[in-house]
């Protein structure tokens, strides 16, 4: 039960920070999303995000900083095993499953429902 609560608190805190940034600054949602991924990459490369993941579990790995963390860790692992070429292939290999799932499920939802552009 404690792990569910911590996941909710950590994930909720990340979302609250994003909402405050959208409400109180002139940053666009796209810039906030890119910033969160970049922060996840930086914290992942410095091994700081590991602590957040230990604390919050899925509450830390599911939001966008978790995606950045995955990119950083996969790239570091690939560079260690393949050298500089790993800097170009690591992020793709590490996040390919999640990206593929997002594309496939997005396509299925577009087939099942009638997507429309916002006016």
From TrEMBL:
Pfam families noted in UniProt: SpoVAC_SpoVAEB (PF03862)
Q: InterPro entries per the record?
A: Spore_V_AE, SpoVA
Q: Tell me the keywords, alphabetical order.
A: Membrane, Transmembrane, Transmembrane helix
**Membrane-spanning ranges:** 6-22, 29-49, 84-113
State the signal peptide span.
none
Q: Return the PANTHER family for the record.
A: STAGE V SPORULATION PROTEIN AC-RELATED, STAGE V SPORULATION PROTEIN AEB
Q: What is this protein called?
A: Stage V sporulation protein AE
List the source organism: Clostridium tanneri
């Amino acid at each position: 039960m404690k792990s569910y609560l911590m996941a909710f608190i950590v994930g909720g805190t990340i979302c609250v920070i994003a909402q405050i940034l959208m409400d109180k600054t002139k940053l666009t949602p796209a810039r906030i999303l890119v910033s969160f991924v970049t922060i996840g990459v930086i914290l992942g490369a410095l091994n700081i995000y590991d602590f957040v993941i230990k604390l919050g579990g899925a509450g830390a790995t599911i939001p966008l900083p978790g995606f950045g963390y995955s990119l950083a860790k996969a790239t570091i692992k690939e560079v260690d095993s393949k050298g500089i070429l790993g800097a170009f292939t690591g992020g793709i290999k590490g996040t390919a499953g999640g990206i593929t799932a997002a594309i496939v499920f997005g396509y299925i939802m577009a087939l099942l429902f009638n997507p429309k552009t916002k006016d």
